[in-house]
Protein: TetR/AcrR family transcriptional regulator
Organism: Streptomyces nogalater
Amino acid sequence: MTATPYPVSEIVAARRPHRKDAARNFDALLDAAREAFAEHGADAALEDIARRAGVGIGTLYRNFPTRRDLFETVYADEVAALCEAAAEPTDREPWEALSAWLDRFAGYMVTKRAVREALNGESDIFQTCRESMYAAGGPLLERAQRAGAARTDMDFGDLLRLVAGIMATTFEDDAQRDRVLAIALDGVRTGR
Amino acid sequence: MTATPYPVSEIVAARRPHRKDAARNFDALLDAAREAFAEHGADAALEDIARRAGVGIGTLYRNFPTRRDLFETVYADEVAALCEAAAEPTDREPWEALSAWLDRFAGYMVTKRAVREALNGESDIFQTCRESMYAAGGPLLERAQRAGAARTDMDFGDLLRLVAGIMATTFEDDAQRDRVLAIALDGVRTGR
DNA sequence: ACTCTAGCGGAGGCCAACCTCCGCTTCAAT
DNA sequence: ATTGAAGCGGAGGTTGGCCTCCGCTAGAGT
């Protein structure tokens, strides 16, 4: 529970209202939106989100004047959590540490696909998210590369997209997804 | 131009009307839909598709009573073309032949993402498509495996999803996409 | 306790896309 | 050439999500 170590964490904090009831509604809306986007994709009905959160549609629009606003905030909130996960100190092997974080990243991406494609890269917030993400996860790859455990002709962006792409696909079952992800990561790993 | 070598080819052929004007409209609608789906995703407006095709909305609904019908037919049409590409005889090395076909597959998937996610696996036609696809492309992988050029602890389905997932993601530029795809395929390749 | 203001909620107008329906047109079989 | 049936198209009713607006509620400072 450290204080906003990444710029992306500020994005949500800055929007959160001060009054108690308003803050509660804000949180409820964010939760409801996350859930609805995961379930129905990017074009989930805003009225449904308000209903899930137990607030009026007016309250939703006050907090998030546009659909895009809501997307951005949900997304930033997720990314902030992910960054904090990467920052937690670990005593694991370089490859293990990287691979464990990628698993976590993969888990988030399963539900975040819809949001990502809706914002489609044309957002300021996107830039901030990317920076925070790189700051948080990049060192994990670099450490693995220095240890000779990961190929050096790729960068962290390549790696994220590789994993994100695989997670965005539907598989027959989780076993197949894991198998495919493992094969792809075999292309990344060196030594061993 | 051989006669419907794969079951999937029958799907479209069976729907195509016999009267000359009707057949022309059917083809125009399919083209327009393919284009619209690639451009606007799965929720392209049907009225817009009819307009592109230069036919009335009534004609669209007569040929494709539901949105799903249209999706399925467009998708089946694409898959049929892809299967024919795999069946063309080649004198290339096993790995080269596989890899070249996967490139073609990748190209199709770029635009087909929307359709795939809309049908979301819950379609009879999907099953037929998969069978034809496996019949067409599976031998390419098997040949590479027998030649010791591809790992044997994966099947053709794993491979397709690996490629499909990567192609479904957005990249900074085509170079990054190619780089990432190459890394992933390094995980598949053996020997060399 | 009092006040005053930030915040609440949902009725209702707007609009865009869906889909039906039916009078007109065009094909092709005889 | 005739004719009847297959096909055409788009007007318009229907649905459902979007967003505004304003009278009411309840938090927080004094």
User: Anything to note?
Assistant: Chain A touches chain B at residues 43, 117, 120-121, 151, 154, 157-158, 161-162, 164-172, 176, 179-180, 183-188 (CB under 8 Å). The radius of gyration of chain A is 18 Å.
